[in-house]
Amino acid sequence: MNSVVCISQVPDTESRIKIAADGKHIDEAGLKFIVSPYDEFALEEAIRLKEGKGGDVTVVTFGPDRSAQALRECLARGATKAMHIKGDSVDADSLGVARVLAAAIRTLPHDIVFFGKQGVGTDNGLVGPMVAELLDVPQVNVVTHLEVGDGKLTAHREIEGAEEIVECSLPAVITAQKGLNEPRYASLKGIMAAKKIPIDTRSVADLGLTDSDVFHQRVTFVGLETPAEKSGGRKIDGADPSAAAQEIIKYIREEAKAL
Amino acid sequence: MPSFPGVDYMLIDSLFSEDELMVRQTVRDFVDEEVLPIIEHANREEKFPFQLLPKMAEMGLFGPTISEYGLPGLDNVAYGLIMQELERGDSGLRSFASVQSGLVMFPIYTYGSKEQKDKWIPKLAAGEKIGCFGLTEPDFGSNPGGMRTYARREGDSWVLNGAKAWITNGSIADVAVVWAKCEGTIRGFLVEKGTPGFTAANHMGKFSLRASVTSQLFFSDCRIPLDNVLPETNGLKYPLSCLTQARYGIAWGALGAAMGVFNTAVEYSKSRIQFGGQPIASHQLVQNKLAWMITEITKGQLLVLQMGRLKDEGKLKPQHVSMGKMNNVNIALECARMARDILGANGISDEYPVIRHMMNLESVKTYEGTHDIHNLIIAEAVTGIPAYNPPMSAKAEKEATERAAAEAAKK
Asked: What domains lie within chain B, and their CATH numbers?
């Protein structure tokens, strides 16, 4: 059972994001980058499959030089191989990224291709489904439970107010939702072993793709803005409770217009 | 709970290798996600957080510098960073790991027989078995050479008599590494839980290291197999070599506690508003405290980093470790007191980690060689004179030891 896990390196979810001078990118200076949290569920599921059934877990990412660190972290947790397609993935739209990953996956043995249900960088949730279409394989998205049998899998997925149970043939694409498993911490032994595994580094051209396949954006960022600063709350003097209550009701009716 | 951003004023991270940083980040995440949410409760209830052990073992935090038995074989800087992050969680948790790795696995691995190693190292690493280290006695702390625990050979057994005090993990340990006077020297013995004549009782009423178990051990005609002596041990330098391991980890660990309280103090001072709508971080007296703290932490970081590199090269001496332990615990305790002060009344509540670290560090200042004794070791290295045991008292002690041994033999 061979798995490919596609991961995205994203700014730490606790980062204070600053917008770069061009108004269309974020300022990466001083940011800490992490493996996108949903990708951790994808990786954990692939490692558990490997532990149960053998085979390889190849972790793949498309991104700049710094993304190699994210691959190392995945190797430390138990992935067995890694491929880094170098490029400015922030300048590709979801389809561009999907084309790169699909081209990479075609070169790798894959019974199941795992993604997080979305990358927390742009939160589009498009790349996994697009890769499934490009590879022409079945996909099950937002998966919370997975059983893999001989040549097929059964996946549970969240739908509005219920759970849907889906069966499909292999190979297939799975996108992982929180709850699929509890990701492990890297072991110290894993960290030491990871540095001995070479990362297979490729360019977009090595995969037979042109810049226009990847960087011709159908969807572009017109601008980025930070959310408006929260204004300080308003204090109401509570010395006279009935007057304070009157004032609160007046606020709810006339200013907040909640009633 | 927000994750810990680290403290790195002088870009010291650039001096660590990629694996050292990954090790630190892994343990840092574990402490943020698993330790900090439960530690105040454990401290308040005076309960060791056993629930953390399976994950700590799975990560490989016990005996991580050993490379046999499938263990990670980390360098000493990576080991130090583990201790730093664990103690940012709690000194008691770091104490558990220090004892398991530095005081139990280290002597068994270094001075034990192959059978002893095969029996204990894998289970101690897996956290399936817990160890403790019995050197200190009720009447012998800074002067362990005066110990009154004796082992005598009787047929196919060693027979142990005596008592040990202030033993981390004592009552929860499956195996105790016990140091006793024996045939004119000091040797280490492995005593298993449940051996007749061996009992343990916890020290009660501790205001420090409350999330860690501290016990007295009693040996009353406790009979153990002859094979349970650590064969390589022969003299006080053997238990002291174990302490050097543990003290090395403490020098790193104390910095973790200092970083924790510093980070809390900075965040608190930036959000606490007094006098004219300004945060107290804008007050010069508060700034002075924060500047002192970050300066001392930074100096401490450079000290332990150099210690770690020397240790990897086999050049680290006990007097180097004394300086690291003495200095870093001292500044960590001062940082905790300053942070307590900056937090005002909130500083005494366990809603914040500061008072817990402050109380813990009072123990850390004393155990594993007191602050003063470490200063005497440093000064001995400088002057050549061992002021902790000058020639006259050494002579008197030798005579007292001989008298006690003669009396023990009569019994």
From this structure: 12-125 (1.10.540.10), 131-234 (2.40.110.10), 238-383 (1.20.140.10)
Is B32 an interface residue toward A (CB < 8 Å)? no
Q: pLDDT per residue over A11-52, tens digit each?
A: 998 888 899 999 888 899 888 899 999 999 999 999 999 999
Instruction: List the end-to-end C-alpha distance of chain B, in Å, as a whole number.
Output: 60
* B37 prior amide bond cis, ω within 30: no
**B14 DSSP assignment:** G
Using CA atoms, how far apart are residues A187 and B64, in angstroms rounded to an integer? 10
Whether the per-residue pLDDT at B83 is higher than 90: the answer is: yes
Number of A to B CB contacts under 8 A, please give it: 49
Tell me the pLDDT tens digit for each residue of B276-315.
889 999 999 999 999 999 999 999 999 999 999 999 999 9
Residue whose tokens read 């003290």: B247
Domain coordinates of chain A in residue numbers? 3-215, 233-259
Any idea which fold A3-215 has? Rossmann fold (3.40.50)
B254 Cβ neighbours under 8 A, 6+ residues apart: B87, B300, B325, B328, B329, B331, B332, B361, B364
Q: What is the pLDDT of residues B92-146, one digit of tens each?
A: 999 999 999 999 999 999 999 999 999 999 999 999 999 999 999 999 999 999 9
Q: Per DSSP, what are the bridge partners of residue A166?
A: A155
Residue B61 in contact with partner chain A when CB distance is under 8 A: yes
B-contacting residues in A 5-44 (Cβ below 8 Å): 12, 14
Of the candidates B88, B93, B40, B91, the one whose C-alpha atom is nearest the C-alpha of residue B62 is B93
Rounded Cα–Cα distance for residues A46 and A143 (Å): 13
Q: Is B54 on the interface with A (CB under 8 A)?
A: no
Mapping DSSP to helix (H, G, I), strand (E, B) and coil, where does residue A230 land? coil
Among residues A100, A146, A150, A151, the alpha carbon closest in space to that of A127 is found at A100
Using an 8 Å Cβ cutoff, are B161 and B219 in contact?
A: yes
Exposed/middle/buried for A163, CB within 10 Å: 0-12, 13-18, 19+? exposed
Interface of A with B in 208-237 (CB under 8 A): none
The ipTM is 0.85
